[in-house]
Amino acid sequence: MTRAVWFHCFAGIAGDMTLASLVDAGADLDVVRELLERLPVRGWEVEAAPATRSGIGATHVKVHASETGIVRTHAHIVGLIEEARLPERVRARALAVFAALAQAEGKIHRRDPSQVHFHEVGGIDAIVDVVGVAAALEALGIDEVHASPVATGIGMVRSAHGALPNPAPAVVELLRGAPTYGRDVNAELTTPTGAAILAALATGWGPMPRMTIEASGFGAGTRELPDLPNLVQAIVGQLDVVGAGGDEGQPVVLLEVNVDDATGETLAHAVAALLEAGAHDAWITPIVMKKGRPAYTVSALADPALAEQVAHTITSETGSFGVRGSTLSRWPANRSTESVAVEGLPVRVKVGPGRAKVEHDDAARVARLTGLPLREVTSRAEATWHARRGHLDDPDGTPA
Fold first, then answer.
1. Where are the beta strands (DSSP E) in 247-323?
2. Region at 206 (left for phi over 0; alpha for psi -120 to 50; beta for the rest)
3. Residues 44, 128: Cα–Cα separation, whole Å
4. CA gyration radius for the chain?
5. Contact between 35 and 131 (Cβ < 8 Å)
6. How far is CA 269 from the centre of its chain?
7. pLDDT per residue over 153-165, tens digit each?
8. Which positions of the chain have pLDDT values less than 50?
């Protein structure tokens, strides 16, 4: 059975609200604190209290921290998390969130992610929020994270860099490919920390997945908002088992278009753009069209919630006048994402039944930053993961 949480982000999402929603849904705060205390950082305290927003009962979590004025780098935070000796999934999830933040901040400031200096998201409270969320997910036994479309506000927000447009540039970058929408609320509904949690951990977007609900909770933001409950909702339960027994599976939309007037460069770019737009997968198939003309079918598999934007990407990138689609079902195997370090930089490893695979983009990024050959980075990452798990690969690549 796969245990999942679905975050309903009707008023956006923030790190403290996410942690609060999980505590409200039943995560033992004492267990979360015990894991947080493994961090080699002192001068903080986590407090949870009942709250009400728009008449809805919730939990509000406050992290009290004594800041030292230290501006931490991504590598510094990776070192703190690695030193904490956290359970593997807690460690991997926390590292994945900060890796997402580093990538986003690096792109915004035109700097290498390894050189990014965290300001707000490098503070003790943000570190406690992120690791606390990972710990709370583990306390609840969560295998998969899902989320609704994410609400954002308007106006301006204040940051260490001064006034920024709302949603903040980091939020926009982190939610690239995710379903989002704006509300006419002059408040920072979604913070970079909240966006990074979803960007790094969410495996599905859209309406609540088919699941047997076991618990739910609301995490309250600090502010009272007019005409909008300042809350994020967490719904916890068992995903319905899918397989050969007649279950419907996970719905997906297959979108396709035939093109006979696009160059190889255009088609390669289209596949990359479709993946950026949130497609589960995208590919090109050579075909022969009428009058014997060689052509290609451009295909993309997408979540129904993202079908419209993926379809728009197909037509805009290929120049097609239309796109066809069909609704299918898929039965993905359970998987988790873990993280290892190569030359001090995080590399994610997808772990599924009988297989562990290094994320190519992470390995390529580390290869660029370190000058190591890509195959060397991949080999080191795989060896580190297997050594941690205490077993070696069989000759065919399957964990022994």
1. 250-259, 281-288, 294-302
2. left
3. 8
4. 22
5. yes
6. 23
7. 999 888 766 788 9
8. 122, 242-246, 391-400
| Confidence (pTM) | 0.67
CB atoms within 10 A of CB 324: 12
Q: Are 317 and 340 in contact (CB under 8 A)?
A: no
DSSP 86-143: --HHHHHHHHHHHHHHHHHHHHHTTS-GGGPBPSGGGSHHHHHHHHHHHHHHHHTT--
Burial 57-67 (b: 16+ CB within 10 A, else e): ebbbbebebee
**Hey, what's the torsion of the CAs at 389, 391, 397, 400, to 10 degrees?**
-120
- Picking from 275, 316, 66, the residue whose alpha carbon sits closest to that of residue 177 is 275
Residue 241 has a pLDDT of: 54
DSSP string, 149-170: -EEE--SEEEETTEEEESS-HH
In order of their start, the domains of the chain are 3-239 (no CATH), 250-330 (3.30.70.1380), 336-389 (no CATH)
Contacts of 297 (CB under 8 A, 6+ apart): 256, 257, 258, 284, 285, 287
Query: In DSSP terms, which residues pair with 61 in a beta bridge?
Result: 48
Q: CA separation (Å) from 153 to 121, 156, 335?
A: 19, 9, 33
Please choose, from the candidates 330, 359, 335, the residue with its C-alpha nearest in 3D space to the C-alpha of residue 346. Answer: 359
Are residues 381 and 351 in contact, defined by beta-carbon separation less than 8 angstroms? no
The closest of 45, 5, 2 to 22, measured between CA atoms, is 5
CB atoms within 10 A of CB 222: 11
CA 265 to chain centre: 29
Q: Tokens 């994610």 label which residue?
A: 348
Place of tokens 């998969």: 144
Q: Give the model's pLDDT for residue 248.
A: 59
C-alpha distances in angstroms, 357 versus 88, 347, 380?
A: 16, 11, 12
SS3 148: coil
pLDDT of 87 reads 93
CA angle 292, 296, 297 (to 5 degrees): 120
Query: Is 310:177 a contact under the CB 8 Å cutoff?
Result: no
Which residue do the tokens 């479309």 mark? 149
Assess contact for 234 and 136: CB atoms under 8 A.
no
